Prior knowledge:
The protein is mainly alpha-helical and 435 residues long.
Amino acid sequence: MTNSTQSNTDNSNMASVTEKVELSLKKRHRKENNFKRLGLAAVALGFVFVTILLSDIIIKATPAFHQYWVKLDVTYKQDWLDVENNNPESLKKADYRKVLKSSIYQMFPDVKGRKNKRNLFKLFSSNAEFVLKDKLIAASHNLNQEISLWVKFDDDVDTYYKDNLADGVAGSRISEQQAAWLSQLKKQNRVEKRWNTEFLTNGDSREPELAGVRGALSGTLLTMLVTLLLSFPLGVTAALYLEEFAPQNRWTDIIEVNINNLAAVPSIVFGLLGLAVIINIFGLPRSAPLVGGIVLTLMTLPTIIIASRASIKAVPPSIREAALGLGASKTQVAFGHVLPLAMPGIMTGTIIGMAQALGETAPLLMIGMVAFIVDIPTGVTDAATVLPVQIYLWADSPERAFLAKTSAAILVLLSFLMVINLSAAMLRKKFEKNW
C-alpha cells in the first residue's frame, strides 16, 4: 500500500514537472514568435516608409524631366539686328533681343500698349535670344529671312502647363490675359512637350527652365575621385601597419584611441580644418574639387582604417604561419597573403566611407563649394559644386519650378550612389575568397 502511494506521488510529481516544462516551452516559443513578428513588422514598416519616401520624390521629380517649348516665327531683319552685313564678328554683337521682341509682336498684332507687350514677352525664356543668336551664326544666309525656331517657355508658363491649368489661372503666376495668349499658341499647334535632356547637360542657372545638374555632377565625380585616390591607399596602408607591423606600446594605443575618436567628430569640424589649413595656409583655391576631396578624405579615413583593421584581423593566423613557415618575409606575408584575403572587407569599409562622403554638405559649405557656379568644371582645381550642395541651394530657392528640380537632383544623387555600390559589390565579389 505504501509503495503504491509513493509510486502515485512520484508519477504526480513527474507529471507536474512535465507540465511545468511544457508551459515554459510554450512561453518561450510564444516570446520567440512575438519577437519574430515584431522584427518582421519593423522591417515592413521601414520598407513602407522608404517606399513612401521614394514614391514622393519620384512623383515630385517627374515634371523636371520634361519641358514645354514654343515655335516662333523669327525674322532676322538687318535693321533690327543693327548690322551692315553677315560678317561673323558683327553677328556676334547684334541686338537679338530686339529681333525676338519684334518677331513676337508680329505674331500678336492685336497686342497694344507697353505693359501688355512686356507681359507677352515674359512668357518666353530669357535664353530665347541666345537661341536666335546661335542659329543665325550657324546659318548666316538666314539674314533678312523668316524662319521657325523652337524655344523654351518661361518657368511660370512651364509650371502652368504641367499643373494642367489650361482651363484656369487659379494657383498660378499666369494672368488671364497671358493664359489667352497661351491658348492661342496651343490652337496654332505651336506648343510642344519634350524630354528635358538639358537637365542632365546644363549647369546651374538662376532661371529654373535652364538649370541642370551637369556642373554639380561633374564636381561630385571629381571630388569623389580625389577622395578615393587619397583615402583608400592611406587608410589601407595605415590599417595594415597598425595590425601587422606596429609594436604594441603606449604610442600605438594613443593612435588607436584618436582614430576611433575622429570617427565621431562632426563633419563641419573637418570643414573648418580645411578652411583654416588647406585654404588659408597652403593657399589652395576655394570651391575646388581638390580641396573638397582632401577635406572628405580627412573625414572618411577613420571609417576606412577601422573597417580595414577589422578585416585584416579576421584573416586566420594559420595563413600567416603557413607563409612564414615557407620562408616568406613579414612584408611578403602582409602584402601577398593577408591583404588580398582582407580586401573584400576593406572594400566594404571604403564603400561606407565613400557613401558617407557623397552625402556630406556641411564641410563643403565651409570651403566655399556653396557658390553659384554656371560653368562645368573640367579639372580638380576649377571652381565647382557638388550634388548635395546643389540640392540644398535649389531647395532654398523661392521659385516653384525648383521643387521638381530638387527632387530630380535627389534621384540623380541616389542613382549615382547605387552605381558606386553596385560597382564596389562586383569588385568585392571578384576579390572574395573563402578559407
